[in-house]
Amino acid sequence: YLPSKKKIAGHPIQIDNIDNPKYIEVLPQLIQMFTPLLDYVELWRINVKILEDIIEPLEIVPNDAMMQVYRHQAKNKSIPDTRGIPYICIEDSVEYVWNIDPCGTPLGGFNGSLASLSAIKLGSIAVEAALKKAKIETNSVQEVFFGNVLSANLGQNPARQVALGAGIPDTVIATTVNKVCASGMKAVILGAQTIITGNADIVVAGGTESMTNTPYYVPQARFGSKYGDQTLVDGIVKDGLTDVYNNYLMGIAAEECATEHKFTREDQDNYAISSYQRAQAAFANGHYADEIVPITVPGGRGKPNKVITQDDEISNLNVDKLRVVRPAFSEKGTVTAPNSSPLSDGAAAIVLISGEKAKELGVKTIAKISGWGEAAQAPANFTTSPALAIPKALAHAGNIQLSQIDYFEINEAFSVVALANLKLLGLDKDKINVFGGAVAMGHPLGCSGARIICTLISVLQKKNGKVGVAGVCNGGGGASAVVISLCD
Length: 488
Hints:
The chain is an alpha+beta fold and about 500 residues long.
C-alpha cells in the first residue's frame, strides 16, 4: 500500500522488500507522515513473521499527539479484509482530548421556569459559564459544535448564535448538529475528532433545546389551502417525537421494546420512581452544584427576578398517582407519561482541549475522552441501540471491558430504554444513572447527549470512580456512546 519510493527526512527510501530492516529504522517518520485523519488508518500489510518477531510489542511516541503503533485484526477494527491478514495500524489516541469543567443549565419543565428563555439564550448561558469555569478566554476558542433538534423559528445556524451570544469572536466557526436525541453527544464527538485531526486545540461542544418555545407549523399556509380546514402541526411531535419511518410516536417503539423484552408496567414504574428518588437525593446532597449554573429569570409584571438552581421536574414525584396513570400510547400498554422522560428545556456545554494546549496554558483538566462509538439498526429498534454503541466505544478506547467501567449514564428517553440496555449488556443497576436520569429531570432533545456526559463526570468525581460510559439512543434507530476517564 506504500509506494515503492518515498521521501523520508529528505531522503528517498527504497521499499522493495518488506523484510528490510530499514522498515523499522524509518518507522517513526513513517508514522508521522501517515498520521490518520480520524481514528485509525491502514498503514501497510506486513507479513506475520515480522509482525510477531520484530514489531510486536512496538510502541513509539513520535510526538505530543501520543501516536501509538498497534496490531489490530481486521475484525476488531471493522476494516474490510477477506483474507484475515493482520494489519499494522496507527491509532491517534483520543486520550489527549480533555474536558475542562463542563456545565449546564438547570432543566426547566415544559412551559416551566425557563419558558421565557430561548434555546439560543440557554445555550449561550451554558457556553459562557463553561468557559468561565475552565478559565479559557473566548478568543482562544477555535470552533463550536452545538446540538439542536427543534430549530424552527430560531433563525439561521443556532450554534453560531449560541457562540456569539456567549461572547465568542465573529471569526470562530460554529456548526449546528442534529442527530435527534444524540445531537449533544455527537457534537462532543465531532469536537474531539476536530482536535485529533489537528484542526483545532480548543473546541466548545454541547447542545441546547427549548421544547417550550417550539412553534406549530401551518404546512399549507404558504400558497393557501384550496378547500377545507387547515391543520396546525406541532413542531415537537413532527420533528422530535415521531418515527417518520413507521409514522408513529416514539412511545409506540418503547411499547414494542417492553413487550419484546418482557418488562411490565410495574417494572417501568419502579424504575421511574427510583430515577426520581436518585435525582432528589443527588440534588439534596449537592452533587449537581458544580455541574449546574444558576439562571436568573426575569419576574415580569413587577415581580422579582427568580434564580433557578434546580431542575423543575424532580419535585413532581407522586408515587400513588404514577402507578395509576393511564398508558400514554396504547390502551393496554405499559408506557406512561411519568415513566417516560418529560418535555423540557435546557443546555449543556463542554470545553475540549488538546493535551498539548492544556499544558501550554497551564489549565487543569478533569477528564479525558478515551473513546467513542456509534451504531444503528432498524428505526423501530432505536431503544436498544445503546447496547450496540457502547461496546464499540469500549473497543475504540482500547478494548476496555464492561467490568472495568465504574458508572454508566444511559439516557432515559423512557424507563424501558434503561431497563432494556441494562438487560442486554448485563449491567449492575446500581452503576446506572446513580444521580437520576431523564425520566426524573427531563429530556431537552438537543441537550441531553451532552448533559449526560456532564453528569457522568460529576458521578465519577463524587463516587470515586475512574472510568465511565455515557450512551444515548436517537430517533431513526441510532445511538452514540463515549468513554470518559477521570484525570488523576
